[in-house]
Specification:
single chain, mainly beta, elongated
Length: about 120
């Protein structure tokens, strides 16, 4: 099974920036799509951005032009650069990965989340 560990969350003022990282660990796997989701209190978990193994990206409309997702396949790590943060970006941010084990079975893993708080 793949374990995902996020880092980089914190408290920032509106207009500021943060960079989230998520490292995948485990054995005998190949990661496909990685992504970031977020959940604010009282809301459902929503997609923020995803990136395929070949670098194709997808963003929620609310973050386009402000957030950038990237990945380092050699390190099995995905990043989320968040600029011009707004109070409505405040949420628990989760890393997600789709992967295949050596027997060709498909799985998905979630990280435990990292808190991002944007003050006005």
């Amino acid at each position: 099974q793949v374990q995902l560990v996020e880092s980089g969350g914190g408290l920032v003022q509106a207009g500021g920036s943060l960079r989230l990282s998520c490292a995948a660990s485990g054995t005998d796997f190949s990661i496909n799509t990685m992504g970031w989701y977020r959940q604010a209190p009282g809301n459902e978990r929503e997609l923020v951005a995803t990136i395929s193994s070949i670098g194709n990206t997808n963003y929620a409309d609310s973050v386009k032009g402000r957030f950038t997702i990237s990945r380092d396949n050699a390190k099995n790590t995905v990043y989320l650069q968040m600029n011009n943060l707004k109070p409505e970006d405040t949420a628990l941010y989760y890393c997600h990965a789709d992967y295949i084990n050596i027997w060709g079975h498909k799985y998905a893993s979630w990280g435990q989340g990292t808190q991002v708080t944007v003050s006005s």
